[in-house]
């Protein structure tokens, strides 16, 4: 009878060393991402605190966002971001979810194989190209043809452009969520005499609701963080007056940062112009962080485990 020692259960030493090296490498990768995130937040906090501790509170509630003149109206950039994001979601959610339902439930394998790459190509289009498309086509050929007094630069065209940009994101995540629903649920629905559309609406979508909610929240975060489409199509370069009219020009958190910072090594103007950009960037970071936290909590609450 062979007697086994403790060393016999430790396995091959070269394999153990390789596993240890892989573990250290992936730990380093995970740690690097955390360190980068901490450095980003740290770089924002210092200048943002300088801004908020020195600015007069009355300057945060004025007629518009003109940091070079000492006017830091937060309503302008926050409401502008909400309006553009709202328009984008009105465009992207029905089209993205509709595309996902078709690809997941109706399209056969050949059609899905043909259509899926087109969605991925749309996702890969640079946002600056969509910004030009929004300015040169959506604004004059869509918005101004429907609304006569809409300006050439307007938040509605920018929102539609951002919506087009987020359609592939919603479609891809939603399709994955619906395709992960077990076929046994569909077969049970068909076995009870339900039609295809009834099965999709009453069975598949409720079962995939956690993925659909995640797709929506991620798309909102993507839309709020979009810069180039809004910068080109909304016309908020250099600042913007406060407005809730989407047919007129406006600006968002991201466009406000880009329009002030672009083209100069040092943003000039009022004493706090440079620091205001860090404050807006921190506001944007906290907004997207809050959306991600909300998305995680919603997904955990409504997730169905099969």
From TrEMBL:
The chain crosses the membrane at residues 25-52, 77-102, 114-135, 155-178, 199-220, 277-295. SUPFAM superfamilies: MetI-like. CDD domains: TM_PBP2. GO terms for biological process: phosphate ion transport. It comes from the Bacteria. PROSITE patterns: ABC_TM1 (PS50928). It is a multi-pass membrane protein. Pfam families: BPD_transp_1 (PF00528). InterPro entries: MetI-like, MetI-like_sf, Phosphate_PstC. GO terms for cellular component: plasma membrane. It is found in: Cell membrane; Membrane. Residues 78-295 form the ABC transmembrane type-1 domain. Keywords: Cell membrane, Membrane, Phosphate transport, Transmembrane, Transmembrane helix, Transport. One of its GO terms (molecular function) is phosphate transmembrane transporter activity. Part of the binding-protein-dependent transport system for phosphate; probably responsible for the translocation of the substrate across the membrane. Belongs to the binding-protein-dependent transport system permease family. CysTW subfamily. This is Phosphate transport system permease protein. It comes from Actinomarinicola tropica. The gene is pstC.
């Amino acid at each position: 009878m062979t007697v086994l020692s403790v060393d016999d259960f430790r396995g091959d030493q070269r394999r153990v060393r390789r596993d240890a090296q892989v573990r250290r490498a992936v730990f380093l990768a995970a740690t690097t991402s955390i360190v980068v995130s901490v450095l980003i937040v740290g770089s924002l906090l210092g200048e943002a605190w300088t801004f908020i501790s020195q600015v007069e509170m009355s300057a945060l509630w004025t007629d518009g966002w003109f940091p070079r003149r000492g006017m830091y109206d937060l309503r302008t950039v926050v409401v502008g971001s909400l309006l553009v994001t709202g328009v984008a979601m009105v465009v992207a959610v029905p089209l993205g979810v509709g595309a996902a339902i078709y690809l997941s439930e109706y399209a056969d394998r050949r059609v899905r194989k043909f259509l899926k790459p087109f969605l991925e190509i749309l996702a890969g289009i640079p946002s600056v190209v969509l910004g030009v498309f929004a300015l040169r086509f959506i604004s004059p050929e869509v918005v101004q043809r429907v609304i006569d007094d809409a300006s050439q630069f307007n938040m509605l065209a920018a929102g539609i452009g951002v919506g087009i940009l987020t359609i592939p994101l919603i479609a891809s995540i939603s399709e994955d969520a619906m395709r992960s629903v077990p076929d046994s649920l569909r077969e049970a629905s068909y076995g009870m005499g339900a039609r295809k559309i009834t099965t999709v609406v009453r069975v598949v979508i409720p079962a995939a609701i956690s993925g659909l909610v995640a797709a929506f929240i991620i798309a909102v975060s993507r839309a709020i963080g979009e810069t180039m489409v809004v910068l080109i199509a909304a016309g908020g370069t250099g600042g913007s007056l406060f407005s809730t009219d989407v047919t007129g020009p406006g600006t968002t958190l991201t466009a406000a940062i880009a329009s002030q910072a672009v083209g100069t090594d040092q943003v000039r103007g009022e004493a706090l112009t440079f620091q205001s950009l860090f404050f807006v960037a921190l506001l944007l970071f906290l907004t997207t962080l809050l959306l991600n936290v909300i998305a995680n909590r919603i997904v955990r609450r409504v997730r169905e485990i099969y």
